[in-house]
């Protein structure tokens, strides 16, 4: 069943349960299925047909050809009896502008980098069921419910699937239609809000984090909350890294530098969780290269990523097919993950293995690489985690310890870069209302390296090693390129905002104002569109100032200047 393709009429705003900062702001008027589209691109059901093979049986909203092809290839798994959940990621065929574009951009502006919408890729969240059924020719019931979204809310969508999928497998399409109608009444996932989301008779409570987490007051809910999710996106780092946790610091370096990595795992769930754990271990830094939580031989990038005619690309792949043990043997770094359900003995201290020792997917768990870390090994975190295992410390506590370790390590690394990049901003006194905004100074690698002598990571980290070498390698990586592009964009917007404020505070003569008004009107439009970080009231103050001066001009000039700016 697809969304109505007839004339779309404006829907009156519906009051949604929610609490937290920002709720007093009125919601924009939404078209039918706009609220649904703020969370999901589509929902589809993939089944197995003896004649056709894997096929999309049902889809809510439209699927592009690429989406259909990719979804079919990924979903059905041989040998996985029972219920299995995992996620995958694939390129978007073509970027299409949505009627919600500006609104969603506004929501994204204040989101942490790890929670921003993925502009070039989709995420597929899968709930796969395979059970014996003698009434079927194949002898098995095999079907998957898949949510396709731009949002990297892994924990949230997996929890949502646990509610929807079992009901759908039992009650079929009416149940799915009801779920879609519920989702189309949800408020948009705006940062800084605690949302209560009703779904099929259950209410989920989720917190959409702000880019700097605010203190959210506890307020009484007007509805009964059935499920509270402490996080919408984080995976259990300790569980994912447990088989190789002696090498967590080395893995952090490999991800930071954007090295080509393969995760070989026994199941799609373990593959996807481990890849997501690797990507998140450098948070709050965004991983800017490609990553595929579950990659198969049917993926459209299979030839591109497995060719031996060029060096492996900067990508993290999660695989389960034994075929990859041979196909990707030339990759420089391979992680073999064992069965995470076997939580008996603690992993033994293992050396990094040589790549030539990796023959099949049955090889022992470990890290296969010739990489030599830049930093000395941190034995304290290993001992702390080992002690937790011996004392049977709760998994949530172990996960919190490891997440804090990665966070502090990444912050120690990135703070010197933040400090240097901030120095590239022109002084505020150099911003004149009569001149264009000044330019940022260029990033000078050697100049930055000199700052590390007195203001390097040694101020916040106890780790020793070749920090300079690590920085030099990082400056060549896609992660630095993505980070610096984002910081440069933010600083340019800040300069534009400061320039607007300078214009607002300056008193203009009549002749000067006539010359500036047209440019200022364009700047105001641009400031609103780009959401420039100006002080509260600046834009309104500047607009009022322009209007006041225009009214003091002759009527013929007033008529000219009151005409709207051309887009």
UniProtKB/TrEMBL annotation:
Sequence ranges assigned to domain UDENN in this UniProt record: 41-494
Chain intervals for the UniProt region annotation (Disordered): 1-25
Record's compositionally biased regions (Basic and acidic residues): 7-16
Domain of life: Eukaryota
This protein's GO CC annotations: recycling endosome
Family annotation (InterPro entries): DENND6 (IPR024224), Tripartite_DENN (IPR037516)
GO MF annotations in UniProt: guanyl-nucleotide exchange factor activity
Family: Belongs to the DENND6 family.
Record-given protein name: UDENN domain-containing protein
Gene expressing this chain: dennd6aa
């Amino acid at each position: 069943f697809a969304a109505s393709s007839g004339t779309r009429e404006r829907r009156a705003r519906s009051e949604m349960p929610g609490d937290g900062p920002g709720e007093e702001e009125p919601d924009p008027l939404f078209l039918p299925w706009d609220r649904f589209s703020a969370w999901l691109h589509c929902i589809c059901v993939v089944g197995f047909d003896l004649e056709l093979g894997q096929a999309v049986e049902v889809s809510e909203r439209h699927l592009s050809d690429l989406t259909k092809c990719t979804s079919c290839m990924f979903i059905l798994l041989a040998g996985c009896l029972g219920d299995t959940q995992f996620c995958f990621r694939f390129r978007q065929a073509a970027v299409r502008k949505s009627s919600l574009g500006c609104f969603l951009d506004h929501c994204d502006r204040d989101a942490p980098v790890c929670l921003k919408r993925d502009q070039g890729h989709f995420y597929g969240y899968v709930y796969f069921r395979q059970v014996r059924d003698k009434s079927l020719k194949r002898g098995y019931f095999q079907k998957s419910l898949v949510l396709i979204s731009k949002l990297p809310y892994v924990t949230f969508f997996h929890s949502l699937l646990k509610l929807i999928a079992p009901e759908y497998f039992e009650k079929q399409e009416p149940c799915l239609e009801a779920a879609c109608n519920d989702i189309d009444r949800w408020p948009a996932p705006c940062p800084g809000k605690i949302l209560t989301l009703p779904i099929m008779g259950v209410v989920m409570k989720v917190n959409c984090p702000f880019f700097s987490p605010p203190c959210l007051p506890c307020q009484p809910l007007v509805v009964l909350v059935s499920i509270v999710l402490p996080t919408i996106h984080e995976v259990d780092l300790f569980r994912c890294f447990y088989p190789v946790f002696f090498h967590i610091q080395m893995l952090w370096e490999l991800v930071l530098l954007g090295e080509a990595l393969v995760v070989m795992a026994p199941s799609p769930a373990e593959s996807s969780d481990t890849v997501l754990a690797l990507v998140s271990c450098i948070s709050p830094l965004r991983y800017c290269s490609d990553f595929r939580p579950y990659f198969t031989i049917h993926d459209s990038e299979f030839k591109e990523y497995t060719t031996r005619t060029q060096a492996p690309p900067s990508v993290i792949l999660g695989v389960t097919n034994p075929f990859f043990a041979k196909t990707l043997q030339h990759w420089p770094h391979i992680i073999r993950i064992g069965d995470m359900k076997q939580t008996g003995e603690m992993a033994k201290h293992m050396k990094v293995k040589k790549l030539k020792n990796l023959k099949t997917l049955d090889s022992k768990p470990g890290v296969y690489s010739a990489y030599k870390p830049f930093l000395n090994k941190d034995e304290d975190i290993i001992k702390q985690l080992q002690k937790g295992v011996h004392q049977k410390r709760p998994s949530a506590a172990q996960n919190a310890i490891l997440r804090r370790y990665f966070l502090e390590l990444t912050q120690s690394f990135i703070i010197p870069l933040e400090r240097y990049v901030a120095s590239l901003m022109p002084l505020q006194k150099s911003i004149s209302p009569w001149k264009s905004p000044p330019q940022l100074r260029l990033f000078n690698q050697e100049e930055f390296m000199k700052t590390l002598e007195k203001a390097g990571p040694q101020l916040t980290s106890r780790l020793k090693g070749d920090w300079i070498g690590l920085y030099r390698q990082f400056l060549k990586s896609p992660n630095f390129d993505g980070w610096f592009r984002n910081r440069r964009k933010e600083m340019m917007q800040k300069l534009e905002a400061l320039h607007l404020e300078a214009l607002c505070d300056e008193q203009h003569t009549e002749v000067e104002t006539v010359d500036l008004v047209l440019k200022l009107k364009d700047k105001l439009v641009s400031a609103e569109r780009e959401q420039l970080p100006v002080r509260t009231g600046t834009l309104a103050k500047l607009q009022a100032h322009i209007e006041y001066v225009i009214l003091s001009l002759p009527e013929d000039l007033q008529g000219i200047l009151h005409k709207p700016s051309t887009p």
